[in-house]
Write a structure and sequence with these properties.
This protein is mainly alpha-helical. 74% of the residues lie in helices and 0% in strands.
Length: 301
C-alpha cells in the first residue's frame, strides 16, 4: 500500500500546485486572459497528470499492488469531485468549450484560446508525469517505465464500436451537464463525478472512456496498435458527435447554427385565459349590432 500512498500524495501535490497557479494568474492577468488561457491550462494540467497516474494504477495496481477496481473507482470519483470544486469554472475539455460556443456563451476567439490552452495543459501534464515516473519513487513507477516503450492502444474493440462507445459516453455526460448547468455546485459536482465514474466503469474496458479529446490525445495517441486516423475517429469525432446529439436533444436546436426548434414546439409565454376571450367576443357582438342599427336608421337618398 506504500505505492498507493505515494500516488495519493502526488494527487494532493498536483491539486495544490495548480490551485496556486490559478490564484497567481488571477492576480497577474486580466480577467479575459485568465478565463481563456490560465484557467484552462491549469485545469487541463491538473486533469491530465491525475488521470495518467490513475491509469497507471488501473493497469499495474491489481497485480502489482494487490488492490481491486473498487479502490481505483473510489479514487476516480474523489478526484473528479475535487476537480469540479477546484477548477474555478474551467472545463478542461474541448467538447465543453465547443458546446459553450454553440450555445452563444463564448465567441470564436475565446473558444480558440481555450482549445489551445487545453492542448498545452494536457501536453505539459504528460511531460511532467513522465518526469515524475522517471524518479521511480515506487515499484509501480519502476514497472511503468519498463513497459512505457511498449504501451498499447486503449481501443480494445472494433473501430466503429469504439467510436460509438466514446460518442455514447460523451452524449450521456453532456446531457447530464446541460441538465445540471444551472444547479448549485454542491449538487452539480458530485453528480458529474458519479456520472464520470459510472461511464468509466462501463466503457473503460472498450476504449478507456476518455470522452475528452485533449486528455485522450496526451494519454493514448502515442501508443502503438492504432493509426492516427483511428484515434481521431474514436477520440475526437466520437465525443464531438455525442456532444452535438446531446445539445440537439436538450435544446431542440443549435443556437449558433440555426434558431428553429426542430424537436419541441414553441408555446406562447403569455397565454390569454379562455374566459376572458369569450367575454371579449360576447361584448364585441352587440357593439357591432348597434353600429349596424345606427346605419340602418339613417335616411337614404
Amino acid at each position: 500500500m506504500a505505492g498507493l500512498n505515494v500516488s495519493i500524495a502526488f494527487f494532493f501535490l498536483v491539486v495544490g500546485v495548480c490551485q496556486a497557479l490559478r490564484r497567481l494568474s488571477k492576480r497577474l492577468l486580466s480577467p479575459g486572459a485568465y478565463v481563456c488561457l490560465a484557467r484552462e491550462l491549469a485545469g487541463s494540467l491538473q486533469l491530465c497528470t491525475s488521470c495518467l497516474e490513475l491509469r497507471m494504477l488501473v493497469e499495474i495496481g491489481p497485480w502489482g499492488g494487490g488492490f481491486g477496481p473498487d479502490v481505483v473507482l473510489t479514487l476516480l470519483f474523489l478526484l473528479f469531485a475535487v476537480h469540479g470544486a477546484s477548477f474555478d469554472g474551467a472545463s478542461a475539455n474541448p467538447t465543453i468549450s465547443l458546446q459553450e460556443f454553440l450555445l452563444l456563451e463564448s465567441n470564436l476567439a475565446a473558444t480558440a484560446a481555450k482549445l489551445l490552452a487545453q492542448g498545452a495543459g494536457a501536453g505539459m501534464g504528460w511531460a511532467l508525469t513522465k518526469l515524475y515516473w522517471s524518479w521511480e519513487l515506487t515499484h509501480f513507477h519502476l514497472i511503468q517505465n519498463l513497459i512505457a516503450s511498449e504501451c498499447s492502444s486503449s481501443i480494445h474493440t472494433s473501430l466503429h464500436h469504439a467510436a460509438f462507445v466514446e460518442g455514447t459516453c460523451s452524449f450521456l455526460f453532456h446531457l447530464v451537464l446541460l441538465k445540471l448547468r444551472q444547479s448549485h455546485t454542491m449538487y452539480r459536482v458530485p453528480a458529474l463525478a458519479a456520472t464520470v465514474t459510472f461511464l468509466t466503469y462501463v466503457a473503460g474496458p472498450f476504449t478507456g472512456a476518455f470522452f475528452n479529446p485533449a486528455l485522450a490525445t496526451a494519454t493514448t495517441f502515442h501508443c502503438s496498435g492504432s493509426s492516427f486516423w483511428d484515434y481521431v475517429q474514436v477520440y475526437w469525432l466520437g465525443p464531438l458527435a455525442g456532444m452535438l446529439a446531446a445539445l440537439l436533444l436538450y435544446q431542440g436546436n443549435i443556437p449558433r447554427l440555426f434558431q428553429k426548434n426542430l424537436l419541441y414546439s414553441q408555446k406562447n409565454k403569455y397565454k390569454i385565459p379562455k374566459a376572458r376571450v369569450v367575454a371579449h367576443m360576447q361584448g364585441y357582438e352587440p357593439h357591432q349590432k348597434r353600429k349596424g342599427e345606427k346605419t340602418d336608421s339613417e335616411p337614404h337618398a
